[in-house]
Amino acid sequence: MTHSFEEPAPDRSLSDRLNRPLAVGNRILSKRLVLAPLSKLGNIAFRELVAGFGGYGLLFSEMAGARAIPHGNGHHKSGFMWRTGELADLVCQIYGDDPEEMAIAARRVEAEGFFGVDINLGCSVAAVCKHNCGAALLKSPALAGRIISAVRKAVSVPVFVKFRTGWRDDPEAAAEFGRRFEEAGADALTFHPRVAPDIRTRPPKWAYIGRVKDAVSIPVFGNGNVFDAADCERMLRTTGCDGVALGRIAAARPWIFAEWTEGFQPEPKIYGQTARELLKLLLTHFEPSLALRRFYKFAPYFAANFRFGHTFYSRVYRAKSIEALQAILTDFFSTPPDLLGSPNPNLFS
Q1: Closest-CA residue to 207 (of 171, 154, 257)
Q2: Is 241 an active-site residue?
Q3: What CATH number has the domain spanning 12-262?
Q4: Which position among 123, 129, 232, 241 bears the catalytic label?
Q5: What pTM was estimated for this model as a whole?
Q6: CA 173: distance to chain centroid?
Q7: What's the pLDDT tens digit per position in 96-107?
Q8: Digit-coded pLDDT (tens) for 272-315
Q9: Which of 58, 248, 284, 312 could link 34 by a cystine bridge, Cβ 3.0 to 4.6 Å?
Q10: Which H or E run includes 303?
C-alpha cells in the first residue's frame, strides 16, 4: 500500500519563531533555520537543490581546507566551490590549525563575497583530527582562540564557530568554550552537544545547548537530532537557542526549510523529482565519476524516507555508471514510494 508523507503541519508559533530576523555581527538573517555544514553532502549541487525550495536563513558550505582556499576556485577536493547567486546567503566553512593560514583563507572568502566565514571546531573524523584540525583543536583551546582572533581581525564579515562539547562529557567545559570563542571575536556559535569521539552513538545532550547559550551574548544555533517540526520547536523552547542548524534531515528532505518556515506541503512525487534533479545538478558541477560518488553519499539519507529504503540504497550503490543510476531512479520512482513518517534510524545514522 502506498501512502503519502503526512507530517503534521508545523505549529504557527514555530514558523513565527523561525521567521524572526536575527542580527549576526553586522548582518541580519531573515530566518533562523539554517543548513548545517555537511562534509561532501553540502556540496555546490546539493545547495543549489535546497535553494530551489528556499525557506532557509543561511546555507553553509562543506568544509574547505585553509591551505587550498587562497589558490583555488572549483577545486573538488578543497570544497571551495560556489555559485555567484548563492553568495549573499552562503557561509564558507574553513578548517586548519594555523592562525595565519586561516586568516589568509578568510580574507579570500570575504573577497569572493560570501555572507561570512565559519571555523570548523567540530569535525571529529580521524583524517581531520590527525592534523590537529576540527574538533582536535578543542584539546588546545588557547590555539583555537588564537585562530578565531586572527580570522576576526582579518575580515569584517560575520565569523561563525561550529564546535562540539569537547573530548570529555562536561557541560561547563562546553560553556567555557563558548565564552572563550565569543571573547576571541566570534559573532555566532553553532553547537553540537556531543563529545568529539561520539559519532552519533548516543543522543545529543540538548541541555548543554542551554548552558552555552547562558554563557554568551552572541547568537547560538542548536544542532543535533532535529528530525521533525516538534523536535525543532522543542529545541528552541527548552534550550533558548537563537536558531537551529539542520543536517541529516536536510539531506533526507531538502525542502524541509520551506516546509517549516513557509508552509510548503510536499507531495509524494517530490521524492522522484528531487532525486533526478540532484543528479542533474551534480552532473552540472562535477565530472561523472565524482557526481556518482556524491550521489552515493546522499543516497542513505534519502533512502531513510522509504519503507523499502535499504532496497533503494543498495540498488543505487551498485550502479557503476550514470546511465545505470538514471535507470534505477526511473524504475524506483515509476510508482509513488511507500513513505515513512520518520526517517529510518538504521539508515539515518
Answers
A1: 171
A2: no
A3: 3.20.20.70
A4: 123
A5: 0.94
A6: 24
A7: 999 999 999 999
A8: 999 999 999 999 999 999 999 999 999 999 999 999 999 999 99
A9: 58
A10: helix 288-303
